[in-house]
Amino acid sequence: MERDSVISAVEKSLSEVLERPVTGLTEEVRLFEDLHLDSTSVLELLMALEDAVDISVDPEDLDMDDFTSVGSLTDYVLSQAAQTTGEG
């Protein structure tokens, strides 16, 4: 899975969760401070990403450090994708 495709999936999923267009994300965009997400919207985002990129997320294993920015979220999704496909 390519990093750019994950960022595109994050944009699409964020648009669904926030119910407004989200485009042009960079890895430095902060999820809480810049996009004003809260813990509930992060869970909604993860559920949308599970469907979008075919990953499985265990809420028990979540670390909020993985959700500080688009870049850290992308790293998290890529690591979950690797585990799902057996590459990790």
Automatic annotation (TrEMBL):
Q: Which Gene3D superfamilies match?
A: ACP-like
Q: Which domain of life is it from?
A: Bacteria
Matching Pfam families = PP-binding
The UniProt record lists the Carrier domain at 1-81
Record-linked InterPro entries: ACP-like_sf, PP-bd_ACP
Tell me which SUPFAM superfamilies the record gives. ACP-like (SSF47336)
What is the name of the protein in this document? Acyl carrier protein
Query: What is the organism of origin for this protein?
Result: Streptomyces dangxiongensis
